């Protein structure tokens, strides 16, 4: 099920204009699924109005890109150091 439809069903569940069984029957979902979608929507609704959410997401994405490159750089420097040391010992 796509996220747009999931959000629509969760919003209808929050509005409580239809019973759980009506929503489940209309969208052909398990009645318990409504609760599973409603909770995250309520828990994260404030994020829709938080200006820092986008900046935080951008920082996280940049960190996910930079961390592997940093580890590669460390491994390269370490390898070069040990290769040089082994040549000096020989």
From TrEMBL:
It comes from the Bacteria. It holds the Pfam family HTH_Tnp_1. InterPro entries: Transposase_8, Trp_repressor/repl_initiator. SUPFAM superfamilies: TrpR-like. This is Transposase. It comes from Rhodoplanes azumiensis.
């Amino acid at each position: 099920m796509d996220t747009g439809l999931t959000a629509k069903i969760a919003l209808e569940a929050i509005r409580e204009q239809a019973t759980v069984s009506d929503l489940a029957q209309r969208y052909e979902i398990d009645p318990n699924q409504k609760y599973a979608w409603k909770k995250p929507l309520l828990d994260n609704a404030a994020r829709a109005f938080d200006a820092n959410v986008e900046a935080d997401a951008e920082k996280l994405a940049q960190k996910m890109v930079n961390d592997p490159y940093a580890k590669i750089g460390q491994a390269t420097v370490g390898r070069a150091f040990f290769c040089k040391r082994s040549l000096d010992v020989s």
